[in-house]
Amino acid sequence: MTQDDLKQAAAEAALQYVEDNAWLGVGTGSTVDFFIEALAKKRNAIKGAVSSSERTTALLKKCGITVEELNNAGDLSVYIDGADEVTEHGAMIKGGGGALTREKIIAAASRKFVCIADASKLKPFLGDFPVPIEVIPMARSFVARAIVRLGGQPEWRSGFTTDNDNAILDVHGWELLNPVEMESKLNQIPGVVTVGIFAQRGADVILLGDEDGVRTLTPETF
Ligand code: 5RP
Questions:
Q1: 0.85 exceeded by the pTM?
Q2: pLDDT, tens digit, 9 for 90 and up, residues 92-138
Q3: What does the alpha-carbon distance between residue 31 and residue 47 come to, in Å, rounded to a whole number?
Q4: Cβ of 83 less than 6 Å from ligand 1
């Protein structure tokens, strides 16, 4: 099986969490693209989707799924998204695709977060994958210096601008043994818009595609 097969299997398994006649939140990335294609078959049973990026919006519309603003949809029943890394406790690094800010907002507005991934994303602790941090452009160097003081090595994602017209710093070299605390510390730095550590509001369900099928981790198994 290819990595794409494993992503697709996890994505299709997430359909069971989609409630009829409700709005849901949809993340961003290659795993989510498989989910949107599967969701198209249920498009008449749901009210529609709140999208986390321009990329996701384009695919949702192409698949005939209604896209609504979060301001109009209100609280959401479920949010489905991928991750760059996830621990068995549901803490994640996200933002490899640069959509972390809208992803974090929609995750916070959702009753349940279902993380879909191939099993290679499951890690004992976070930090192998560089932590994306969205910053206001004028604060880029200031935030980078603050990150160095916290032991990280920031790298500007040169030539990339987020959907919110901000910059991204990818931070290498952190072994995140306490991701909740690090998320809080980084959130205090003026100029930081969003931290790609999703630990304070982590995943409620993790669906992992591996060679034996799709494994489900939930709070009962955490
Ligand atoms: C985008 C994200 C994605 O969920 C993350 O990068 C995983 O992507 P993929 O499904 O392509 O592996 O956080 O901002």
A1: yes
A2: 999 999 999 999 999 999 999 999 999 999 999 999 999 999 999 99
A3: 22
A4: yes
Phi first, then psi: give them for residue 108, nearest 5 degrees: -65, -30
- Nearest C-alpha to atom 2 of ligand 1 is from which residue? 95
Residue 103 appears among annotated catalytic residues = yes
Q: How many Å lie between the centroid of ligand 1 and the Cα of residue 99?
A: 8
Which residue is listed with tokens 């896209």?
A: 67
d(CA 197, CA 176): 9
pLDDT by residue (tens digit) across 163-222? 999 999 999 999 999 999 999 999 999 999 999 999 999 999 999 999 999 999 996 555
Q: Encoding tokens for residue 195?
A: 């931290």
Greatest distance between any 2 Cα atoms in the chain = 51
Check if 134 has its Cβ closer than 6 Å to any atom of ligand 1. Answer: no
Is the shortest distance between the CB of 96 and ligand 1 below 6 Å? yes
Q: Which of 37, 54, 69, 103 is labelled catalytic?
A: 103
The finding on whether 132 has its CB within 6 A of some atom of ligand 1 is: no
Q: For residue 194, give both structure tokens.
A: 């969003």
Among 110, 112, 113, 104, CA closest to 132: 104
Which domains, ranges and CATH numbers included, belong to the chain? 3-123+200-217 (3.40.50.1360), 131-196 (3.30.70.260)
Residue 130: partners with Cβ closer than 8 Å, 6 or more residues away: 155, 170, 171, 172
149 CA → ligand 1 middle, Å: 28
The reply to whether ligand 1 has any atom less than 6 angstroms from the CB of 28 is yes
